[in-house]
Design a protein that fits this description.
Layout: H1 11-27, E1 38-40, E2 49-52, H2 57-60, H3 64-78, E3 82-88, E4 91-96, H4 98-109, E5 123-127, H5 139-157, E6 161-168, H6 173-185, H7 191-194, H8 198-222, H9 224-235, H10 237-261, H11 272-280, H12 282-288, H13 291-305, H14 308-332, E7 338-341, H15 342-345, H16 350-359, E8 363-364, E9 370-373, E10 381-385, H17 393-408, E11 412-418, H18 422-434, E12 443-448, E13 451-452, H19 468-486, H20 494-514, E14 522-523, H21 526-529, H22 537-554, H23 570-592, H24 595-615, H25 624-647
Parallel strand pairs: 5-6, 5-11, 6-7, 11-12, 13-14
Antiparallel strand pairs: 1-2, 2-4, 3-4, 8-9, 9-10
Helix pairs in contact: 1-3, 4-23, 4-25, 5-23, 6-8, 6-13, 6-14, 8-14, 12-13, 16-17, 19-20, 22-24, 22-25, 23-24, 23-25, 24-25
The structure holds one RNA strand of 77 nucleotides.
RNA sequence: GGUCCCGUAGCUCAGCUGGAUAGAGCGGCGGACUUCUAAUCCGCAGGUCGUAGGUUCGAGCCCUACCGGGAUCACCA
């Protein structure tokens, strides 16, 4: 056996350097290691890694096949870990020695933290969830929360110190609507008195407000004032033309939608009059005529003035909501290091604007409003302070970013926010950059696509929004059905069973959502989300559970015989190679802020293990060495499966 | 109209900095449990990678145009 010393470079880098040397000595050409195209060898060919040698045909002035032969021969000679090669067309397939893999497995077998990088001294903040406090969490929040949590875990594994935060949108007209409705129609009811979860309780009053407002608005539309508003609009040719264009598009969409759903499309639902009242005039009505609108606005003013009664009501309602949110977060298994409340931060940022104005980052218009000119960054002019000196959304975000930097001194900030705010974050980041924020280069908007249902978009107005709590209950119930059919847990007490079903059900839901790349819009089919077979969370958990079962049966084992195992099966090499690639994959996932790649990795690893498990016996392996080796390998696979799922926020049961 | 994102099998999705015959799962069909958990495994069927050009030894991936879906272009948040 060739002595193997631990080398600083990994096998991939060693191959690359070997190729650089070979090309230099054989053909006298200089290439860089990064320029080499290297892949894992495809299953149908022999080998572990493949180097593409087409690009060297020019400098070598030889056929790709010949280059492959020459480089391959030299690599076997020069790189100790390469045991053989074969060439097909321009592809040089390299085999890594079994020795190397066996020793690698031996090395990681003792590492409790394999896959996790040492701290890199950098600190990153991840903001996610950030709900409004006027209604409960829904499916969209779940995607956000899972992405945020998972990204935070991945960054931590990659060596960052991570601070998880959210901005709670606890103020504004929305919560005032809930407050007002409760005041008028609540008759002193509480979550406790009605047996309702706090966030749902408050959400009901928000809905109630909207219903009452709609009633009021409908009546007004028929009134003289309403008809006058309509006539006035109809007289404005330009406005009508514009509306008709938009209306035509809306009709087209509605028709397509109806056709897709097999429903009938009615023209009456899309008249110009309806369009006017629904899409053009509603805000004006709310702000200028609506009694309820006036009352809600008055309440907001009182809140801003610190009116005691309003403040008390506000605190009460938000407290109910937080109680509900906490329950949902608990069920999802997520937590935060710090909460920022909009009621505290909404006035921030004005000082920053003043300083920026002095530095010339912003400019003032004649009316006193303050703007930033981002046209040279291919963006537009953007208002940062109204003429009356009050702030807008982005002002607050500028202030909040600075506040956070003061609080934690982070190097990076990741905002997990849906892609409808892409433009906002471009503007925000560019503005912070110009203000000279030291963390400017570390700003990242983790933008994700909306979640659609098989029936189309979620629309709160049409009641098609999928509630987070309902969804969680559903997947856990489905896990329970599955478990009962299987009857593998009947010797456990009810509590232990329930815990496993919770873990399995949530695994199905979480994996289903995280496996899709963030930037893609995703279709959420409730039926598929509770699937537990195939490419699912429970499938990955099951691989782990099978290993635990084997390990239980194996009992305490002396695994030293494993090093005598000399000839690896293909399935075993596959598994070890995947384990080998794991740390780099985590690093890439962290760099790209992409949890979906970790989900895919976990699935691939589980799949390889399931196949291995099916094809080879572990406890009844042909030799002592094979048995010890396979137990060792299984343990290492279990460790990486567990870590991978942990990075996705998925727990692993030891039975299921 | 300007800008951005997406378009891969019936459905849901992978496809790493361009590399071999484009891969999984679900659904369909057919097999494998007296043997370590069958929430598993194996086989079959299923594709003009939205369309048309271009760059390249080589394009699902890069460039251009177009088509389809979505978002955004507020002194809303």
């Amino acid at each position: 056996m060739r002595p193997h010393k631990l080398l600083p470079m990994n096998i991939i880098e060693r191959i690359q350097h070997g190729v650089v040397d070979a090309v230099k000595t054989l053909y006298g050409a200089d290439i860089t290691p990064e320029s080499i195209t290297m892949n894992s060898t495809r299953k149908e060919f022999e080998g572990d890694y493949t180097v593409v040698v087409f690009p060297y045909a020019k400098v070598a002035r030889k056929k790709p096949e010949q280059i492959g032969e020459e480089v391959g021969a030299q690599l076997v000679e020069q790189v100790a870990e390469i045991s053989g090669y074969n060439v097909i067309k321009g592809f040089l397939n390299l085999s890594v020695s079994d020795d190397f893999w066996v020793q690698f497995l031996d090395r990681i077998a003792g590492q409790d933290n394999y896959g996790r990088q040492a701290p890199n001294g950098q600190k990153v903040m991840v903001e996610f969830s950030s709900p409004n406090t006027n209604k409960p969490l829904h499916l969209g929040h779940i995607r956000n929360i899972l992405l945020g949590w998972s990204t935070a875990q991945i960054l931590e594994a990659a060596g960052y110190e991570v601070v998880k935060v959210q901005v709670v949108n606890d103020r504004g007209i929305a919560i005032c609507k809930s407050m007002l409705a409760w005041q008028r129609f609540g008759e002193g009811a509480t979550p406790a008195s009605t047996g309702t979860k706090g966030d749902h309780f408050v959400g009901e009053y928000y809905v109630r407000f909207e219903q009452e407002f709609q009633k009021e608005y409908d009546a007004w539309q028929a009134s003289t004032a309403g008809q006058q508003a309509l006539q006035q609009f109809l007289a404005d040719e330009k406005a009508v033309k514009k509306a008709e264009k938009a209306l035509a598009e809306a009709r087209k969409k509605a028709k397509n939608e109806a056709a897709r759903q097999g429903e009938t499309y009615t023209e009456e639902a899309h008249t110009l009059e309806r369009y006017f009242f629904k899409n053009i005039y509603k805000n004006t009505y709310f702000n200028e005529y609506s009694e309820l609108g006036q009352a809600a606005k008055a309440m907001l003013l009182k809140w801003e003035a610190g009116d005691e009664e309003v403040m008390q009501l506000w605190k009460q309602m938000n407290a109910w909501v937080y109680e509900g949110f906490d329950e949902t977060y608990d069920k999802l298994g997520v937590s935060f290091d710090k909460l920022y409340f909009e009621s505290d931060t909404y006035l921030l940022g004005r000082d920053a604007v003043k300083q920026g104005l002095e530095k010339g980052v912003f400019y003032e218009k004649e009316d006193g409003s303050v703007w930033i000119d981002l046209t040279d960054a291919k963006l537009d002019h953007k208002l940062v302070l109204r003429k009356d000196g009050t702030s807008v959304y982005i002002t607050q975000d500028i202030g909040t970013a600075q506040e956070r930097y003061k609080d934690f001194g982070v190097d990076k900030m990741v905002y997990v926010v849906a892609d409808e705010q892409d433009y906002h974050f471009q503007v925000l980041f560019e503005t912070l950059r110009r203000l000279g924020a030291p963390y400017a280069d570390g700003l990242f908007h983790l933008s994700y696509g909306m979640v659609d249902l098989p029936t189309g978009k979620m629309k709160s107005r049409e009641g098609t929004v999928v509630d987070a709590d309902d969804l969680i209950a559903e997947v856990v119930a489905e896990a329970k059905n599955n478990a009962e059919e299987r009857d593998t847990l009947s010797d456990l007490n009810a509590e232990a069973q329930q815990e496993i079903m919770r873990q399995v059900g949530l695994a199905a839901l979480k994996f289903f959502i995280i496996k899709v790349q963030p930037q893609k819009r995703m279709t959420f089919d409730p039926k598929e989300s509770v699937d537990m077979q195939g490419q699912t969370g429970p499938y990955v958990q099951n691989a782990y559970v099978r290993i635990q079962s084997v390990l239980r049966k194996a009992g305490e084992q002396d695994l030293s015989a494993a090093s005598a195992y000399k000839k690896l099966e293909t399935a075993e090499r596959d598994l070890i190679a995947q384990l080998y690639a794991f740390p780099a994959l985590i690093a890439e996932a962290a760099e790209a802020y992409d949890p979906s790649s970790v989900a895919n990795f976990s699935y691939d690893l589980a799949k390889s293990y399931h196949r291995f498990y099916h094809d080879y016996s572990i406890l009844n392996a042909e030799t002592k060495a094979a048995k010890a080796f396979r137990i060792k390998l299984s343990k290492a696979v279990a460790h990486s499966l567990k870590l991978a799922l942990e990075l996705l926020g998925i727990e692993v049961p030891s039975r299921m």
